[in-house]
Amino acid sequence: MALNQDYLGKVYPASEPYQVGREKIREFAIAIGDLNPAFHDVAAAQALGHRDVIAPPTFAFVVSMRASAVAMFDPGLGLDYSRVVHGEQRFAYVRPVTAGDDLVVVTTIENIRVAAGNDILTTRADISTVDGEPVVTTWAVTVARGTAEASA
Amino acid sequence: MTASVAWADVEVGTVLPPLTVTLQRVNLVMYAGASGDFNPIHWNQRFAQAVGLPDVIAHGMLTMASAGRVVTDWVGDPGAVVEYGVRFTRPVVVPDDDHGATVDLTATVAEKRDDHLVRVDITARFDGATVLGKAQALVRLA
């Protein structure tokens, strides 16, 4: 089954809020082996000008992945999740994700294409606070290996 | 944001301090829990091999996070990273032993832009080959 081209440009409704926790940030930083005080120590983060501890630059994927599952597992989209690999990932920040943020995600199917028999999906996640303050935009390219229909 | 490196003090070609990380199975378990990504290719050898992989592989996002540490260690304030992107070109295979996978990370200032921004290009090498493509960060320096 191949990706449904009708889904190109589809925008999903905003996700339920994700509450960014201080302890989750600390856990994530430890898991990536990073002891930078900005991720662990509130006073150190505030000395750098942040409101609370900030998350490492890739943490936003935790937020976007959870929200974008609605798109990835949309049966109408036709993505074979058993064959996916993560192809590319990008983040563009307005400001760091910070402990205490209440974030909502709007997911857009930005691109659908086929290359070498693979279905390639680009999903964009626009992440803002519940009050509408933009925080970060993420782009994920997902490759489903060998699932594309044979080209004419 | 309060970078500890000044834009005026770097030039194209400035080399960031390198970093070597060792990823063992326990690190993949911790990252799965911290990230919510429980894809079995990252912890289940039987499953990984059944889908054609040589063994369990690290989450691409864990490799991306590791590579990002070169930049955040250098700039001091991780909030100075305004953009970061990578392509995942090869997997990092993590055997079930006491040695794990060694990933060597290096980075260089590749471009100076207006507004105190610099582009940093990062290289991640595992088992004699690069595992990330076009790994680039945009950083706002002091």
Give structural notes.
The complex is a heterodimer of chains A (about 150) and B (about 140). Chain A has four helices and five strands, in the order βααααββββ. Chain A has about 150 residues and is of the alpha+beta class. Chain A has a domain at about 5-20 and about 55-145: Thiol Ester Dehydrase, Chain A (Roll), CATH 3.10.129. Chain A has a five-stranded antiparallel β-sheet, with helices on one face. In chain A, a hairpin with a 2-residue loop joins strand 3 and strand 4 (about 120-130). Chain A starts with 17 loop residues before the first strand and ends in an 8-residue tail after the last strand. Chain B has three helices and six strands, in the order βαααβββββ. Chain B has a domain at about 5-25 and about 60-140: Hotdog Thioesterase (Thiol Ester Dehydrase, Chain A, Roll). Chain B has helices at about 25-35, 45-50, 60-75; strands at about 20-25, 80-90, 100-110, 115-125, 130, 130-140. Chain B is elongated, with a radius of gyration of 16 Å. Chain B is about 25% helix and about 30% strand. With about 140 residues, chain B is an alpha+beta fold. Chains A and B meet through helix 1, helix 4 and strand 2 of A and helix 1, helix 3 and strand 2 of B.
